[in-house]
Amino acid sequence: MYVAQLTLPERRAALALACLVAGLGLTMAVLGRDDLLGTHGALVIACGVVVAIVVMRGFYAPSPSPERLSSYYDDPTRAGIVFAMIWAIVAMAVGDWVAWLLVSPDLTFDAAWSSFGRLRPVHTSGVIFGFGGNALIATSFYVVQRTSRARLPDQVSPWFVLLGFNLFCILAASGYLMGITQSKEYAEPEWYADIWLVIVWVAYFGLYLRTLARRKEPHIYVSNWYYLAFILVVAVLHIVNNLAVPVSLGHAKSYSAFAGVQDAMTEWWYGHNAVAFFLTSGFLGMMYYFMPKRAGRPIFSYRLSIISFWGITFMYMWAGSHHLHYTALPQWVQTLGMTFSLMLLVPSWASATNALLTLNGAWHKVRDDATLRFMMTAAVFYGLTTFEGSFMAIRPVNSLSHYTDWTIGHVHAGALGWVALITFGSLYSIVPSLWGKRAMYSPRLVEVHYWLAIAGTLVYVISMWNSGIVQGLMWRTYNDSGTLAYSFVDSLVAMHPYYVMRAVGGLLFLIGTVVGAYNIWRTMRTPALAEIGDFAEAPARAAPTLAAAE
Amino acid sequence: MFGFHYRLERHALRFVIAVILVAGIGGFVEIAPLFTISETVEAAPDMRLYTPLEVAGRNIYMREGCYACHSQMIRTLRDDVERYGPYSLAVESKYDHPMLWGSKRTGPDLARIGGKYSDEWQVAHLQDPRAVVPESKMPSYAFLGRTPLKTSDLGLHLKALRKVGVPYTGEMVANAPADAYGQAAPDSPYAAGVAQRYGEATQVRAFMGRQGDPTEMDALVAYLQVLGRLTDVAKAQQAQAAE
Looking at beta carbons, which residues of chain B come within 8 Å of A120? Predict the structure, then answer.
């Protein structure tokens, strides 16, 4: 049905691109026939062929009416939301599974693919890129059109960006299971997947700029600053950190251009700023649009937005070295990292404050509307997590927290409490209108999802705080004779109850996500408003004369 | 300032350039000097290179995601040093493309695991961790012992490593598969060349207790047994400090 919206030249272009991708896959399959690269080549061929078949089947559908040009192009956003929810369920399920593996490590069936080490990146990449990335792409298309009062410039490049990005995610996740990894945390995909992502990302950047160039608003809205920073900086980080030399063009394996201490610094410059520009900047863009929109209140302070935006953009890039305290990294870099991490609290809290003060005058809505409450709670977790992050970057605190589960707790306070909650809030606020419905299928299920998500996050984070601090303290406890009081295994035994608790917390969060996905699916499937006859025209068809969010 | 921004946010390209400049400073100031300041990486004239078998083992370590639970970076903290040995120096990972310092210790640090346990212990532990350490949370890696090691393309691996700065000689590249075989088969004619090319301290022995075509287990154990033993600089430095 999406193909019918494409014009005939666009259908041709889409078909050509799909064939090109299949051709690339064929090249990979031939060059890498003696290696796992060949398997990935086959996978790429399959993806290209599937898209080609879909385009072919709609190829001779009637041309779309020219009226489409007077409305926003939301098909890729719809598909992106569906992809995001699928990735959310898969990746969170894998995450909870690996949590149980730490409770009961014999659940690996004596196979290679099922061990913790191979599944863990499936979880991390799946939630960060699969869930988070699809949500960001989908909402950025939605937001940039409305805040610019302009339609996306064409109908092929958004699909190229969305589907190309998902191909990258599939290559990443399937590669880990087969043992294809660079072993750089959060940058595990190998050289060919990395190059592909660069191509997709350039298209994404171009699409964004072309849409902005068509805008009818003189100013670029705050959300777009954040989305732009997300696209730009992630590109820079990705390219630099993934510089590598492949063993050969027929090998999936490559060797990083950097080694040792330089590699460590580059990796954590990347790793920390993936948090900053993927998981913070992009989602702040989401928050700056959907939260005021849902609350029916303007952003509290335009100046605070400016200060926090440039503060975050400037200072985050210095903070990565706090991942390397007390290591072989020169001390001057560690100190710089710590200093900027502390200063970073100012723009972070400026954003959180700006968000929460936006709700002034709308707190009754927060009470009654779980969707808005998702976003409010996300802003609170954003504030808490950024405070915790600055705190953990202090060298002596880090000597206790580093290498322990405290870090895992911190990451999940951000990932569950901030990233996932702001995403669910945003999705719940646009899913009904995108599918031409008045409201979500079940507001009660939104409420259920909210409480499951909150309970899951709290159980998870609190268990990891406990285990992390216990672990850190046990490692450094001395007995009266001046020797270490506990062996490493002693600390491992002490972790067991917390690992059970964490896995339960994760399960609660996962159930919430499944409830959310079910609710979204039912919303999509209920008869449209127009069919019921309540509205002559569904909101999704509204013309671009719609007021922008400012 | 706000007036300036009021104008800036009306031009997409200017905004883009501003973001790149503002975001670029931090990384540049922190990373670029690490390549130019010579004190960043200590001198270690006795530093050995990973043998082809150890490179293969290191690749298995990465493939299996061992770094997700094991760090290879002993910090300059008293309890870290007393638990794991002299703190890690930058030079010790100077040939590590990429580094495997890790970020989490679900299991213990492995920076100086080499020589701490016997080969038999390592093999038994990898095959069934809980047979050796009942409380362990580690998965079983028994399949490594059943999987023959692919050695035919190790020369290409060394070549790629040479491109990124590891000083492998042409002779090392040419003999990579034979050296991988010889290191785990001390009685074979290929064994002598390994010590000759990679130094007398190279550990040439049957890691799994049997000679012949090496398995992935041989490679991984060879790698684990060399961790922390490519140079003696860290130990020498600690001994010097103690005096």
Answer: 65, 68
Beta carbons of A403 and B103 less than 8 Å apart: yes
Q: Indicate the SS3 state at residue B51.
A: coil
Of A35, A19, A547, which Cα lies nearest the Cα of A292? Answer: A547
Task: Give the total number of structural domains in chain B.
Answer: 2
Q: How far is B204 from chain A (nearest CA, A)?
A: 25
* Residue of B2, B22, B77 with shortest CB distance to A399: B77
The reply to whether A40 and A151 lie within a common domain is no
pLDDT digits (tens, 9 = 90+) for B220-230: 999 999 999 99
* B110: in domain: yes
Closest Cα partner for A122 from B20, B57, B68?
B68
Same domain, A36 and A128: no
Neighbours of B229 (CB within 10 A): 17
Task: Give the structural domain span for A58.
Answer: 1-64
Which residues of chain B are within 8 Å of residue A269 when distances are taken between CB atoms?
27, 30-31
Provide the token pair at A259.
């080694």
Instruction: Mark whether B19 and B88 lie in a shared domain.
Output: no
- Whether residue B131 sits in one domain with residue B234: yes
Partner-chain contact B96 A260, CB within 8 Å: yes
**Are residues A253 and A146 part of one domain?**
yes
Instruction: Answer yes or no: is B40 within a domain.
Output: no
Closest CA to B84 of B98, B74, B70, B99: B74
Q: What is the pTM of this model?
A: 0.95
Residue B5 domain boundaries: 1-35
At B131-172, the pLDDT tens digits run 999 999 999 999 999 999 999 999 999 999 999 999 999 999
Report the complex ipTM.
Answer: 0.96
Q: How far apart are CA A119 and CA A127, in angstroms?
A: 13
